[in-house]
Amino acid sequence: MRLADPLGAVPSVVPTVGSKELVALLPTMLGLRGAGTVLIPEVAYPTYEVGAVLAGLTVRRTDTPPADVAGVVLVWLNSPGNPHGRVLTDDELRAWVAWGRAHGVPVVADECYATLGWDVEPRSILHPEVAGEDHTGLLAVHSLSKQSTAAGYRAGLLSGDPALVRQVWEVRRHLGLLVPTPVQSAMAAALADDAHVDEQRERYRGRRDRLATAVRAAGARIDHSEAGLYLWVTRDEDCWTTIDWLAGLGIVAAPGSFYGPAGGRHVRMALTATDERVDAAVERLVG
Ligand SMILES: Cc1ncc(COP(=O)(O)O)c(C=O)c1O
C-alpha cells in the first residue's frame, strides 16, 4: 500500500493519527460546518456525535436510510459496530450506498473492527460486491488499534472517493495532522503481516467463548456481538441495574445508555482484559 508522500503527491490512502481524531474532525475537514444533520447509528460510538457538534451540526440516530433527507450532510456507518458488535449485511450496505448516491450525501464507514468477525465475515463498504467499481461519495476508516493491538501507535487509515480523500488530505496538511515517519513504517510492516492479526484474533476468540458461556450460564442474554471486541449483554432490565450486579462481582462493564437511548437495557463487556482477568470474571459469574 502507498502512504502519504512527504513531497506532496496525493495519496490514495491517508494515514491518520489513530482513527478517533479523524472521526471527530471529518465533518469539519469536509467543510460541512454550519447547519445540517449527520446520521449516526441508533447505538453508536460517541465520537460521531462529538465530530458533528464540533462542526456546529446536529445528529439524527437511525439504522436505516431515512425517507426524510432534509438537511442531511453526512452518514456514519460502523460495521462491525461498537458497542454491540452488529455487522451490516451486504444488502444493508448497498442500501446505504444507493441512498447516499441518490441524495448526494457522503457515506462513511468506520471499519476499525473489520478483522474481528466471529459468526460472520464483515465486508467493507468499498468492496466491489457493495460499491461496484465506483467509490464516489464513499469513505472507509480503518485502524491498527484493534487488529494489531497497536492503539498506542495512533495508526489509522482513510480511503475511498479520491475527491473526498484529496480534500481531507489537503486540510490535514495545513493542520499538521501528519503521522510520523516511524509510525508510518510500523503501519506498513503491520499491514504486510497477517500472522500477528490471526494470532491476536484467536486470543480474543478464546476470551469471547469463555466469557460468553459464563454470561449465559449466569442468566444474561447476549445480543448481536457477531464481530468485534465486545459482548452486548442484557438481563432485560435498566443497564444500571446490570452494572450494579456486575460491580457486585467485581466486574466493570460500560452502561449501554452511554451509546444512545436505545442502548439503555444493555451493557458492553470488553474482551480487551488479559486472559487472567477474563478468567477471573468467568469464575465469579459462574461461581
Ligand atoms: C468504533 C470506533 N471507531 C474508532 C475508534 C478509535 O480508535 P483509534 O483512535 O484507536 O483508532 C474506536 C475506539 O474504540 C471505536 O470503537
From TrEMBL:
* Aminotransferase class I/classII large domain mapped to chain residues: 11-285
Read off the Pfam families from this record.
Answer: Aminotran_1_2 (PF00155)
Instruction: Give the matching NCBIfam families.
Output: DapC_actino
Q: Which species does this protein come from?
A: Geodermatophilus obscurus
InterPro entries, per database record: Aminotransferase_I/II_large, LL-DAP_aminotransferase, OxyQ, PyrdxlP-dep_Trfase, PyrdxlP-dep_Trfase_major, PyrdxlP-dep_Trfase_small
Which cofactors does this protein require? pyridoxal 5'-phosphate
Which GO terms fall under molecular function for this chain's record? Answer: pyridoxal phosphate binding; transaminase activity
Keyword Ligase on entry: no
Per UniProt, the keywords (alphabetical) are:
Aminotransferase, Transferase
- Gene3D superfamilies according to UniProt: Aspartate Aminotransferase, domain 1 (3.90.1150.10), Type I PLP-dependent aspartate aminotransferase-like (Major domain) (3.40.640.10)
Q: Which SUPFAM superfamilies match?
A: PLP-dependent transferases
State if Cell membrane is listed as a keyword.
no
> What is this protein's record name?
Succinyldiaminopimelate aminotransferase apoenzyme
